[in-house]
Design brief:
By secondary structure, this protein is mostly helical. It is built from 11 helices and no strands. The chain has one domain: MetI-like fold (Orthogonal Bundle).
Length: 259
Amino acid sequence: MTSPAQIGRASASLPVVLSLGAFLALWAIVAAIVAEPTTMPGPLRVWTVLADEAASGRLLTNTGITLLRVVAAFVVAMGIGVALGLVLGRSHGTDRWLNPWLVILVNMPALVVTVLCYIWIGLNEVAAVAAVVINKVPLVTVMVREGARALRPDLDDLARIFRMPTGARLRHVVLPQMAPYIAGAARAGLSLIWKIVLVVEFLGRSSGVGFQIHLNFSMFRVAHILAYAFTFILVMLVIEYLVLRPLERHAGRWRQDGH
């Protein structure tokens, strides 16, 4: 017997399924009108290429390499950004000194940072990850800083009255309040990181999804470009909906419980 919760989930997913179906139908219609498979391949052509690349092992290998770079850059950037954001949000003096640096880095084009890292460090993995981290850290820092500024002073006063150690205060007072901001920074940062990783691979790596897009661009194989692009977008959507969104809901649960 179907439960009301299952019916509700099915009703909520129906618009998504219909919207994706409409997108595929529109794509197929446009491809049929253009009638030029080399520049506007249809969904079936892209699916055939995707299946061939998967069967050869190239799709899994290159997607895995890109995903490893995304994870490495994400972990490093989140660690640095969260620490800096907490310091800047809690120390007005430090914030006044470092805010101009943040403004510069936030507005620095990712392409420029990538090119400079390759010139200064070399065409290697360190430069690739460093370029992504440098582009990501300012965004995380700004978002976490705003959360640190919004911390409740009464809870800080309570922690001081009870003489809580610094570690305990951070774990039980600061981080629970910061969790929604950190989760939001993680979601926004991930959507930015994977795009920058593709640019980094396009410019200076010999493996990964970005490199495959570069390779197929040089040979004007649009179906291959779309196959790799949609594959990695799908991977990122799975991470978004199955990992980051549940974590964000869990992080904000304490506010709802408090009400």
